[in-house]
Design goal:
Elements: H1 13-37, H2 45-55, E1 64-69, H3 76-83, H4 86-91, E2 95-100, H5 104-113, E3 118-121, H6 123-132, E4 138-147, E5 149-153, E6 168-171, H7 177-188, E7 203-206, H8 212-218, E8 223-227, H9 230-236, E9 240-244, E10 255-262, H10 263-268, H11 270-289, H12 291-306, H13 312-318, E11 322-324, H14 330-343, H15 358-366
Parallel strand pairs: 1-2, 1-3, 6-7, 6-8
Antiparallel strand pairs: 3-10, 4-10, 4-11, 5-8, 5-9
Length: about 375
């Protein structure tokens, strides 16, 4: 039996017009529904941030706040807070102006020069910046991250920690946080290294994190004491983790990233600084509540900044080794400053006043959480 065909009657122009108008009216609702389902890299955080600044009501005491960070996983609070608009949300009509940096000294220079207000940065650059300005240019106002640093080596050349003697091991920069930690570790082994040249019983080769993987593959370095994701990139290229720095610290915690602020900006715009800290505290809560979603968000921000995301074989092992924290772990910063002085990189620093945790503790108290300590190094 032949199939019955249904003949469709063409719509009249008036009917088509009514349908077109109805579809047009429904389109914004559909777009809104789709947008509300997105998160992380699936949403458009840039548009969300613009909307937040535009619709957030009155501006605070500053029209904008310039925030610096590194495109590293150890700056996860900044990556996720910016990507998800969590910091912008707390600022309302005051606009976030993010700036990515590759090294601590350039970020300190920007802060000193007045082109940056707040920054995410490692402890050693913060110490150096504070000491060189004789305590006049910055304050540490919060912690951000702990951990995420590993010694990765060529397993064909180095099988035990004792095998490091006579080898070429990279650190990111002379006097940076990992360089100081590695020099202190070498000293603990009884080996000698000149802190300026890096020459000695171990050759400390100061190598930019972006260059280290190629140097490792080419054999010009035998290993590296580096933060994530560089450590996991080296592992993906055949390296082996010989030491995780967390194992060297009490409670397996040490500060790897702080939040600093220009003292001038802090004095003139405390309401803006407090709003940023509300955003970072809520960002860390967001990260800890859903680590996998946060990992995707951080990777989306890295892709936006650098043009491509990290491979799963790199980010998956790197992400769990980093712990976000509001606590600046001030006692560990004090220890790191003592290591830098012992290595001969700086004179024994006077860090009195480097911290001002008053706004952070205000935010934590409002959230029903305990205050954090400045280890006796707070501003008076």
């Amino acid at each position: 039996m032949p199939a019955t065909r249904t003949t469709r009657t063409p719509s009249s122009p008036r009917t088509a017009l009514r349908r077109g108008l109805a579809a047009a009216a429904a389109l914004p609702l559909l777009v809104g529904a789709l947008a509300s389902c997105g998160y992380g890299s699936q949403a458009d955080p840039a548009e969300d941030r613009k909307a937040g600044a535009a619709a957030g009501g009155a501006k605070l005491s500053a029209g904008e706040v310039r925030i610096g960070y590194f495109p590293n996983l150890t700056h996860a609070t900044a990556l996720v807070g910016l990507q998800e608009g969590l910091i912008q949300k707390e600022l309302g009509g005051t606009t976030v102006k993010p700036q990515a940096f590759n090294a601590g000294p350039s970020e300190i220079e920007a802060l000193n020069g007045g082109s940056l207000d707040i920054g995410f940065i490692g402890p050693s650059p913060a110490i150096n910046g504070y000491v060189k300005s004789k305590g006049s240019n910055l304050r540490i106002i919060s912690g951000s991250a702990s951990g995420g640093v590993k010694l990765v080596v060529n397993p064909d050349k180095i099988k035990t920690l004792d095998d490091l003697k006579g080898k070429r091991i990279a650190t990111p920069q002379k006097g940076n946080t990992q360089d100081v930690a590695f020099l202190n570790w070498i000293s603990g082994k009884g080996w000698k290294v000149d802190p300026e040249s890096g020459k000695g019983d171990v050759s400390v080769v100061r190598t930019d994190n972006k260059v280290a993987p190629d140097a490792f593959k080419q054999g010009s370095i035998d290993g590296a004491w580096v933060p994530e994701p560089t450590a996991s990139k080296l592992v993906s290229d055949g390296g082996s983790v010989l030491l995780d720095e967390t194992t060297l610290w009490p409670d397996k915690k040490f500060v790897i990233t702080n939040i600093i602020v220009s003292q001038k900006f802090l004095k003139e715009h405390p309401d803006v600084v407090e709003a940023v800290l509300r955003g970072t505290v809520k960002t860390n809560e967001w990260i800890n509540a859903d680590p996998d979603r946060a990992k995707a968000s951080a990777n989306a921000k890295l892709a936006a900044d650098g043009g491509k995301p990290l491979d799963a074989k790199v980010i998956d092992p790197a992400w769990p080794s980093i712990a976000v924290t509001d606590d600046p772990l001030a006692s560990t910063l004090k220890t790191q400053s003592e290591w830098a002085a012992k290595a001969g990189l700086i004179e024994q620093p006077d860090l009195a006043g480097i911290y001002d945790l008053s706004l952070l503790n205000k935010v934590l108290k409002a959230a029903g959480r305990p205050e954090v300590s400045d280890a006796g190094l707070g501003a008076q």
